[in-house]
Amino acid sequence: MNTKASIQMDIRKLSLDDLKIVMKELGQAGFRAKQVYEWLWQKGARSFAEMTNLSKALREQLEEGYQINAITEDKVQHSADGTIKSRFRLHDGHLIESVLIPVPDDNRFTVCVSSQVGCSLSCKFCATGQMKRLRNLDAAEIFDQVVLVNEQCMEKFGHPLTNIVYMGMGEPLLAYAPMLESIEKITTPDGLNMAPRRITVSTAGIAKMVRRLADDATKVNLALSLHAADDVKRDEIMPINEQNNLAILMDALEYFYKQTKNRISYEYIAFQDFNDSLEDAHNLLQLCKRFPVRVNIIEYNPIDGAEFRKSAAHRIDDFARYLRDHGVMVTIRRSRGKDIDAACGQLANKG
């Protein structure tokens, strides 16, 4: 490990008030704190050398006392469908992945960000779930993914990101504090100033943390990785359901909706002959009746070591039609980036 990295604090862990104290200690005017803060959170600076409106002497002082643990690009893969997967290296050597999903025809450019190195939930259909959770990302590491992929999006498509989904590696609600701080830095006028309604946090279903998200009055959208509409099947594929069954989850989601009125969606991967029958659709319909919800039906993307099969297109269409005929808003999401292992459930630092 870098000796310097082990003894110096990442300056991005300091608040604006903390930076004002630092500037005072360095004999600098108070407004310098605001300048540093803007470089870090509005402009996404990854080195003190970039902070060109600070004196060279001040930049050297900051360099001596602090560091910026910026993530760095390790590998980039391009899918035939335009999807781009980026593997990033963290300051301690760990690797994470982010995915840029462009839909130029809809003027929609989405980044899927990771919140943990690995994952502890062991969902049977997910490659990340086969990895151990090594640690949570900190807020700046999540923030960096957005900044770097936005630069990538501008360079490749001439357009900034329009949406952020916390659906990459890890369970965001188990990295709650850094997740929330990263959202604050992304949405505040002092940061990237992105609208909270453009952000969706996805969870496998941590009921008490869904309630906490509601109590913290966040304005982001919430997506539940549902994937089965009865407890027997959900227990089989998602161990988290044993402590957070559907009744408990629905109560928490209803609480979230009543407190925030933010949009809720169900993510539902269709597995052949497991959860794609009309009976399964009927069970899902019952879960759509308590509060407004959208359903995203997702094609299954095969991973090593899992026995699931992708549901046939006609079964997915029949499933979706049943829900629509009963008034549910449904979108069928065809896989993007599966040729580079960038599709839903495939992120595992391969290659």
Helix and strand element order: HEHHHEEEEEEEHEHEHEHHEHEHE
Strand content: 15-25%
- Record the strand order, biggest sheet: 3-4-5-6-9-10-11-12-13-14
Q: What is the name of the CATH topology of the largest domain?
A: TIM Barrel
In the predicted model, the low-confidence regions spanning at least 5 consecutive residues are 1-6
Structure overview:
There is one protein chain. The protein has 351 residues and is α/β, with parallel strands linked by helices. It folds into two domains: 3-67, DNA polymerase, domain 1, CATH 1.10.150; 72-340, TIM Barrel (Alpha-Beta Barrel), CATH 3.20.20.70. Helix content is 34%, strand content 19%. It has eleven helices and 14 strands. It has helices at 3-7, 16-25, 31-41, 56-65, 139-157, 176-187, 207-215, 231-237, 246-260, 278-287, 313-325; strands at 9-10, 66-67, 72-78, 84-89, 95-103, 108-112, 116-117, 135-136, 163-166, 199-203, 221-225, 264-270, 294-299, 329-333. The strands form three sheets. Strands 3-4-5-6-9-10-11-12-13-14 form a ten-stranded mixed β-sheet, covered by helices on one side. β13, α11 (313-325) and β14 (329-333) form a beta-alpha-beta unit. α7 runs parallel beside α9 (246-260). The chain is elongated. The relative contact order is 0.11. Mean pLDDT is 91; it is low at 1-6.
